[in-house]
Amino acid sequence: MRAGLLRFSAALLLAALLAAGAQATNVSNNELADWSPVRQELVFTSDRTGSYQIYLMNADGTGVRRLTHDGAEDDFPAWSPDGREIAFSSNAQGNYEIYVMDANGTGLRRLTHNPADDAVPKWSPNGRRIAFMSDRTGNYDIFVMNADGSRVRRLTTWPRSDASPAWSPNGRSIAYASTREGGVLAIYTMNAGGGDVRRVTTDSNHDNYPTWSPNGKEIAFTRDIAGRGEIEVVPADGGKATALTHGGIDGFVPNWSPDGRHIVFTSTRDGTDEIYVMNADGTGLHRLTV
Fold this sequence. Notes:
290 residues, 2 helices, 24 strands
Protein backbone atom coordinates (compact mmCIF):
# COMPACT_ATOMS: atom_id res chain seq x y z
CA MET A 1 0.00 0.00 0.00
CA ARG A 2 1.31 3.46 -0.87
CA ALA A 3 0.59 5.01 2.51
CA GLY A 4 3.07 7.77 1.72
CA LEU A 5 1.03 8.85 -1.26
CA LEU A 6 -2.18 9.44 0.61
CA ARG A 7 -1.04 10.35 4.11
CA PHE A 8 0.74 13.64 4.37
CA SER A 9 2.64 16.07 6.58
CA ALA A 10 4.02 19.52 6.01
CA ALA A 11 7.58 18.26 6.41
CA LEU A 12 7.22 15.43 3.89
CA LEU A 13 5.06 16.93 1.17
CA LEU A 14 6.99 15.35 -1.71
CA ALA A 15 6.71 11.86 -0.28
CA ALA A 16 3.10 12.44 0.59
CA LEU A 17 1.99 13.45 -2.89
CA LEU A 18 4.20 11.45 -5.23
CA ALA A 19 5.55 8.47 -3.27
CA ALA A 20 8.29 7.83 -5.80
CA GLY A 21 9.94 4.52 -5.16
CA ALA A 22 6.88 2.95 -3.54
CA GLN A 23 6.55 -0.79 -4.03
CA ALA A 24 3.45 -2.68 -5.10
CA THR A 25 2.09 -5.37 -2.80
CA ASN A 26 0.55 -8.74 -3.60
CA VAL A 27 -2.89 -7.23 -3.03
CA SER A 28 -3.90 -4.51 -5.47
CA ASN A 29 -4.68 -0.94 -4.45
CA ASN A 30 -7.20 1.33 -6.16
CA GLU A 31 -7.02 5.10 -5.63
CA LEU A 32 -7.59 8.68 -6.70
CA ALA A 33 -10.94 8.46 -8.51
CA ASP A 34 -12.32 11.36 -10.53
CA TRP A 35 -15.93 11.46 -11.77
CA SER A 36 -16.59 11.99 -15.47
CA PRO A 37 -18.43 15.28 -16.10
CA VAL A 38 -20.53 13.77 -18.90
CA ARG A 39 -20.84 10.01 -18.29
CA GLN A 40 -21.46 7.73 -15.33
CA GLU A 41 -17.79 6.74 -15.25
CA LEU A 42 -14.84 7.09 -12.91
CA VAL A 43 -11.19 7.30 -13.85
CA PHE A 44 -8.77 6.01 -11.21
CA THR A 45 -5.31 4.55 -10.65
CA SER A 46 -4.51 0.98 -9.63
CA ASP A 47 -1.47 -1.25 -9.16
CA ARG A 48 -3.36 -4.45 -10.03
CA THR A 49 -0.83 -5.21 -12.78
CA GLY A 50 2.27 -4.29 -10.74
CA SER A 51 2.77 -0.56 -11.30
CA TYR A 52 0.15 2.16 -10.91
CA GLN A 53 -1.74 2.63 -14.16
CA ILE A 54 -4.87 4.57 -15.15
CA TYR A 55 -8.18 2.72 -15.41
CA LEU A 56 -11.84 3.47 -16.13
CA MET A 57 -14.88 1.92 -14.50
CA ASN A 58 -18.60 2.55 -14.42
CA ALA A 59 -19.87 4.64 -11.52
CA ASP A 60 -21.17 1.49 -9.83
CA GLY A 61 -17.74 -0.18 -9.93
CA THR A 62 -18.39 -2.48 -12.90
CA GLY A 63 -16.78 -2.52 -16.34
CA VAL A 64 -13.16 -1.88 -15.35
CA ARG A 65 -10.83 -1.27 -18.30
CA ARG A 66 -7.18 -0.22 -18.44
CA LEU A 67 -6.08 2.95 -20.23
CA THR A 68 -2.30 3.26 -19.73
CA HIS A 69 0.32 0.58 -20.38
CA ASP A 70 3.65 2.25 -19.66
CA GLY A 71 4.94 0.34 -16.62
CA ALA A 72 5.56 3.64 -14.82
CA GLU A 73 3.70 5.19 -11.87
CA ASP A 74 0.66 7.04 -13.28
CA ASP A 75 -1.27 9.11 -10.73
CA PHE A 76 -3.90 11.80 -10.14
CA PRO A 77 -6.03 11.37 -13.29
CA ALA A 78 -8.37 14.29 -14.03
CA TRP A 79 -11.15 14.58 -16.60
CA SER A 80 -11.36 17.48 -19.01
CA PRO A 81 -14.65 19.40 -18.68
CA ASP A 82 -16.01 17.94 -21.93
CA GLY A 83 -15.11 14.37 -20.90
CA ARG A 84 -12.99 13.82 -24.00
CA GLU A 85 -9.53 13.85 -22.38
CA ILE A 86 -7.78 12.81 -19.18
CA ALA A 87 -4.75 14.56 -17.70
CA PHE A 88 -2.49 12.73 -15.24
CA SER A 89 0.95 12.68 -13.62
CA SER A 90 3.52 10.05 -14.62
CA ASN A 91 7.17 9.29 -13.91
CA ALA A 92 7.59 7.46 -17.23
CA GLN A 93 10.59 9.69 -17.99
CA GLY A 94 12.11 9.45 -14.50
CA ASN A 95 10.60 12.52 -12.85
CA TYR A 96 6.90 13.28 -12.67
CA GLU A 97 5.48 15.14 -15.67
CA ILE A 98 1.96 16.05 -16.81
CA TYR A 99 0.44 14.06 -19.67
CA VAL A 100 -2.89 14.13 -21.48
CA MET A 101 -4.61 11.32 -23.37
CA ASP A 102 -7.95 10.78 -25.03
CA ALA A 103 -10.64 9.25 -22.82
CA ASN A 104 -10.11 5.84 -24.47
CA GLY A 105 -6.38 5.82 -23.68
CA THR A 106 -5.13 6.80 -27.13
CA GLY A 107 -3.47 10.02 -28.30
CA LEU A 108 -0.98 10.37 -25.41
CA ARG A 109 0.75 13.76 -25.25
CA ARG A 110 3.34 15.03 -22.79
CA LEU A 111 2.63 18.60 -21.65
CA THR A 112 5.46 19.50 -19.27
CA HIS A 113 9.20 19.20 -19.88
CA ASN A 114 11.09 20.10 -16.73
CA PRO A 115 13.66 18.20 -14.63
CA ALA A 116 11.57 18.92 -11.51
CA ASP A 117 8.39 17.08 -10.53
CA ASP A 118 5.12 18.34 -12.05
CA ALA A 119 1.99 16.68 -10.65
CA VAL A 120 -1.71 16.82 -9.72
CA PRO A 121 -3.15 18.41 -12.89
CA LYS A 122 -6.61 20.02 -12.75
CA TRP A 123 -8.50 21.46 -15.75
CA SER A 124 -10.11 24.87 -15.68
CA PRO A 125 -13.91 24.70 -16.16
CA ASN A 126 -13.65 26.04 -19.73
CA GLY A 127 -10.98 23.45 -20.60
CA ARG A 128 -8.48 26.03 -21.77
CA ARG A 129 -5.98 25.79 -18.90
CA ILE A 130 -4.53 23.24 -16.51
CA ALA A 131 -3.34 24.05 -13.00
CA PHE A 132 -0.71 21.83 -11.40
CA MET A 133 1.89 21.73 -8.65
CA SER A 134 5.63 21.73 -9.28
CA ASP A 135 8.85 21.93 -7.27
CA ARG A 136 10.77 23.56 -10.13
CA THR A 137 11.34 26.63 -7.92
CA GLY A 138 12.88 24.65 -5.05
CA ASN A 139 9.66 24.09 -3.12
CA TYR A 140 6.17 23.23 -4.32
CA ASP A 141 4.19 26.02 -5.96
CA ILE A 142 1.00 26.22 -8.01
CA PHE A 143 1.43 26.79 -11.74
CA VAL A 144 -1.00 27.13 -14.61
CA MET A 145 -0.51 26.45 -18.32
CA ASN A 146 -2.57 26.32 -21.48
CA ALA A 147 -4.19 22.96 -22.13
CA ASP A 148 -1.57 22.25 -24.82
CA GLY A 149 1.30 22.80 -22.34
CA SER A 150 2.25 26.27 -23.55
CA ARG A 151 2.57 29.49 -21.53
CA VAL A 152 3.44 28.04 -18.12
CA ARG A 153 2.96 30.63 -15.38
CA ARG A 154 3.70 30.48 -11.65
CA LEU A 155 0.80 31.56 -9.41
CA THR A 156 2.20 31.17 -5.89
CA THR A 157 5.52 32.60 -4.71
CA TRP A 158 5.46 31.90 -0.99
CA PRO A 159 8.71 30.28 0.30
CA ARG A 160 6.75 27.35 1.78
CA SER A 161 4.90 24.58 -0.06
CA ASP A 162 1.68 25.16 -2.03
CA ALA A 163 0.03 22.03 -3.44
CA SER A 164 -3.09 20.23 -4.71
CA PRO A 165 -4.83 22.91 -6.83
CA ALA A 166 -8.57 22.76 -7.60
CA TRP A 167 -10.56 25.20 -9.76
CA SER A 168 -13.83 26.70 -8.61
CA PRO A 169 -16.80 25.86 -10.88
CA ASN A 170 -16.89 29.42 -12.29
CA GLY A 171 -13.15 29.37 -13.04
CA ARG A 172 -12.48 32.52 -11.06
CA SER A 173 -10.72 30.92 -8.07
CA ILE A 174 -8.34 28.09 -7.22
CA ALA A 175 -8.32 26.25 -3.91
CA TYR A 176 -5.09 24.66 -2.74
CA ALA A 177 -3.22 23.40 0.31
CA SER A 178 -0.34 25.38 1.79
CA THR A 179 2.04 25.38 4.74
CA ARG A 180 2.56 29.14 4.52
CA GLU A 181 1.32 29.89 8.05
CA GLY A 182 3.18 28.12 10.83
CA GLY A 183 3.94 24.98 8.87
CA VAL A 184 0.38 23.65 9.22
CA LEU A 185 -1.06 22.41 5.94
CA ALA A 186 -4.32 24.34 5.48
CA ILE A 187 -6.78 25.03 2.65
CA TYR A 188 -6.55 28.41 0.93
CA THR A 189 -8.17 30.05 -2.07
CA MET A 190 -6.81 32.61 -4.51
CA ASN A 191 -8.14 34.17 -7.66
CA ALA A 192 -7.16 32.52 -10.94
CA GLY A 193 -4.35 35.02 -11.38
CA GLY A 194 -2.74 34.20 -8.04
CA GLY A 195 -3.99 37.18 -6.03
CA ASP A 196 -6.48 37.69 -3.20
CA VAL A 197 -5.18 34.77 -1.10
CA ARG A 198 -7.56 33.72 1.69
CA ARG A 199 -7.26 31.01 4.30
CA VAL A 200 -10.31 28.72 4.43
CA THR A 201 -9.49 26.16 7.16
CA THR A 202 -7.99 27.19 10.49
CA ASP A 203 -7.74 23.89 12.36
CA SER A 204 -4.43 22.78 13.90
CA ASN A 205 -4.56 19.51 11.92
CA HIS A 206 -3.17 19.21 8.41
CA ASP A 207 -5.72 19.71 5.59
CA ASN A 208 -5.12 18.73 1.97
CA TYR A 209 -6.69 17.77 -1.39
CA PRO A 210 -9.44 20.41 -1.68
CA THR A 211 -12.24 19.98 -4.22
CA TRP A 212 -15.14 22.38 -4.89
CA SER A 213 -18.76 21.32 -4.83
CA PRO A 214 -20.43 21.77 -8.25
CA ASN A 215 -22.46 24.74 -6.95
CA GLY A 216 -19.29 26.43 -5.65
CA LYS A 217 -20.62 26.80 -2.11
CA GLU A 218 -18.47 24.20 -0.34
CA ILE A 219 -15.01 22.67 -0.46
CA ALA A 220 -14.45 19.04 0.49
CA PHE A 221 -10.97 18.10 1.69
CA THR A 222 -8.94 15.57 3.66
CA ARG A 223 -8.12 16.34 7.28
CA ASP A 224 -5.32 14.43 9.02
CA ILE A 225 -6.49 13.54 12.54
CA ALA A 226 -3.89 11.68 14.60
CA GLY A 227 -2.38 10.18 11.48
CA ARG A 228 -5.64 9.13 9.85
CA GLY A 229 -7.53 10.93 7.12
CA GLU A 230 -11.14 12.06 7.36
CA ILE A 231 -13.28 13.69 4.67
CA GLU A 232 -14.70 17.06 5.73
CA VAL A 233 -16.49 19.95 4.04
CA VAL A 234 -16.20 23.66 4.74
CA PRO A 235 -17.98 26.72 3.30
CA ALA A 236 -15.94 28.00 0.37
CA ASP A 237 -15.53 31.39 2.03
CA GLY A 238 -14.41 29.83 5.33
CA GLY A 239 -16.15 28.84 8.52
CA LYS A 240 -16.79 25.70 10.51
CA ALA A 241 -15.84 22.42 8.83
CA THR A 242 -18.20 19.45 9.03
CA ALA A 243 -16.89 15.88 9.15
CA LEU A 244 -18.49 13.47 6.67
CA THR A 245 -16.54 10.39 7.75
CA HIS A 246 -16.02 9.37 11.35
CA GLY A 247 -14.16 6.93 13.54
CA GLY A 248 -10.85 6.73 11.71
CA ILE A 249 -12.28 5.63 8.39
CA ASP A 250 -9.05 6.78 6.71
CA GLY A 251 -10.51 8.75 3.81
CA PHE A 252 -8.42 10.67 1.28
CA VAL A 253 -8.67 12.73 -1.90
CA PRO A 254 -12.41 13.40 -2.28
CA ASN A 255 -14.12 14.31 -5.55
CA TRP A 256 -17.75 15.33 -6.09
CA SER A 257 -20.14 13.81 -8.60
CA PRO A 258 -21.20 16.33 -11.28
CA ASP A 259 -24.67 16.67 -9.74
CA GLY A 260 -23.22 17.30 -6.25
CA ARG A 261 -25.13 14.38 -4.72
CA HIS A 262 -22.16 12.08 -4.06
CA ILE A 263 -18.49 12.15 -3.08
CA VAL A 264 -16.00 9.53 -4.19
CA PHE A 265 -12.78 9.03 -2.22
CA THR A 266 -9.98 6.61 -1.35
CA SER A 267 -9.92 4.71 1.95
CA THR A 268 -7.72 2.09 3.59
CA ARG A 269 -10.45 0.95 6.01
CA ASP A 270 -10.34 -2.62 4.64
CA GLY A 271 -6.54 -2.90 4.64
CA THR A 272 -5.79 -1.81 1.08
CA ASP A 273 -6.45 1.42 -0.78
CA GLU A 274 -9.93 1.14 -2.27
CA ILE A 275 -12.42 3.54 -3.83
CA TYR A 276 -15.62 4.33 -1.94
CA VAL A 277 -18.60 6.55 -2.62
CA MET A 278 -21.01 8.19 -0.19
CA ASN A 279 -23.83 10.69 -0.29
CA ALA A 280 -22.77 14.31 0.01
CA ASP A 281 -23.96 14.34 3.63
CA GLY A 282 -21.76 11.34 4.53
CA THR A 283 -24.49 8.69 4.51
CA GLY A 284 -24.83 5.69 2.21
CA LEU A 285 -21.17 4.69 2.21
CA HIS A 286 -20.24 1.76 -0.01
CA ARG A 287 -17.13 0.34 -1.67
CA LEU A 288 -16.75 0.39 -5.46
CA THR A 289 -13.50 -1.46 -6.13
CA VAL A 290 -12.66 -5.06 -5.31
